[in-house]
Design brief:
Four Helix Bundle (Hemerythrin (Met), subunit A), alpha/beta, 8% strand, Spore Coat Polysaccharide Biosynthesis Protein SpsA, Chain A, 2 domains, two-stranded antiparallel sheet, six-stranded mixed β-sheet, 408 residues
Length: 408
């Protein structure tokens, strides 16, 4: 399956922002090409920073490396042509070209230290804040004094102070904890990126029972060519097997089905984690993820009702299974527009808000309860609770939508 990448994020403010990524010399024993091509959570160091800068709204970007040469530029050509980059990156071969490029670009223009990783949320806040609110976050730099930034060490210049009034290029210092000075730092930041790969509104059950396993799987897959959409389909296929087994008679089938559904949930967490850490979020991907989840919920509920009916001969469980499935589908149709909007890259990265009550209930935590119920052979109890609960939830969503439509 091919993986398409978003060319821009429409949720970002419209600003004509320009940025320069300064690549400093690594240690004398380090090859600069290998250094900046080293992967952090599956993405080369230099590309991760460039993608971050574009994701926060910087539309025009240039890369400058002190003591540059044609061979070094050629080694980066493949990286700079990555399909995830929405615009062509300009390579500045010397200090004169750098100053000339700055002079020909309108303000605001930002300069970044390529020896640091930049955090998307913090960076977005800095460059989209009012000028009087970012005095401590950025440093105006006179273009004639750029050499002060181009020191051989990867560290920040210790004596760097504002040298120019507003209207000049703004230097954005890196955070000390995101600095890369030695090879061990790549591994540390790799782990840090994976730890941040969850969602801010994960429930306590998800954080405790699902994320540890999904992150383990993400560590295995993050440096492979497997795409998030392919992982979503694998999770969907496992869910289909689970639903089929729930429809069969027998305690063993029910337990195996419940275990497979939990496994499906673990795999389902991996697609989003990889998409976020590798900048591979797409509209198609988020829709596929949500649609597959809810199709599985519908099939599982109806399959459980069918399985209990085949086992007991009591028609009431066919009705309960169908009622639970239809309730889950109605809830999905009512809530999916909100979930799709909040799972957009811009919303996830920059406009985090406390999830509403409905969103807190719209998760897959019930699957762990289903496993427990299957182990004690009480699926009858589960399907009755699901039939009532899913339709109460759907009714609540319908009521909330009606109230909001009247207000607006």
């Amino acid at each position: 399956m091919s993986q398409s990448h978003p060319k821009s994020d429409s949720s970002l403010p419209e600003k004509n922002l320009t940025g320069i990524l300064l690549l400093k010399k690594p240690g004398e024993e380090e090859n600069p090409s290998h250094w900046y091509s080293s992967k952090i959570a599956g993405v080369p160091f230099i590309l991760r920073n460039l993608l971050t800068l574009q994701r926060v709204g910087i539309k025009t970007l240039a890369v400058f490396y002190e003591d540059s040469n044609a061979d070094l530029q050629k080694s980066f050509d493949k990286i700079l042509m990555d399909s995830r980059l929405s615009e062509k990156i300009v390579w500045l071969p010397n200090i004169l070209k750098l100053k000339e490029w700055i002079q020909n670009k309108p303000s605001p223009l930002y300069i970044f230290n390529g020896s640091f990783l930049y955090d998307k949320k913090k960076l977005f806040t800095i460059i989209h804040s009012e000028p009087n609110n970012i005095n401590e976050a950025v440093i105006p730099i006179n273009p004639d004094s750029l050499e002060n930034l181009l020191i051989k060490t990867a560290s920040e210049p210790s004596n760097l102070k504002p040298e120019a009034p507003s209207g000049f290029p703004l230097y954005v210092p890196g955070s000390h904890e995101l600095q890369i000075q030695k090879l061990e730092d790549f591994k540390a930041l790799h782990e840090a990126q994976l730890r941040k790969s969850g969602l801010s509104h994960d429930s306590p059950i998800t954080r405790m029972l699902s994320r540890p396993v999904s992150r383990f799987l993400t560590r295995i897959l993050v440096n492979t060519p497997v795409t998030p959409n392919q992982i979503t389909l694998i999770s969907f296929f496992v869910g289909l097997i689970s639903a089929f087994l729930f429809s069969q008679v027998g305690y063993a089938n029910s337990v195996i089905a419940a275990i497979l559904l939990v496994v499906s949930t673990w795999i389902d967490g991996v697609d989003g984690e990889i998409a976020r850490v590798k900048f591979m979020e797409t509209d198609i991907g988020k829709k596929l993820d949500i649609y597959c989840d809810n199709i599985i919920h519908f099939l599982v509920f109806t399959a459980i009702g069918c399985g209990i009916y085949l086992k007991t001969g009591e028609v009431i469980f066919l009705y309960l299974g169908t009622l639970a499935g239809l309730g889950s589908l109605l809830s999905f149709f009512l809530l999916s527009p909100v979930l799709l909007e909040k799972r957009s890259p811009g919303k996830q990265l920059f406009h985090i808000s406390e999830p509403e009550l409905a969103e807190k209930f719209a998760n897959r935590d019930f699957i762990h309860f289903l496993l427990l119920v299957a182990l004690i052979d009480q699926l009858k109890v589960f399907i009755m609770i699901a039939a009532i609960g899913s339709n109460i939830f759907a009714g609540y969503l319908l009521y909330s939508r009606t109230i909001k439509s009247k207000i607006t």
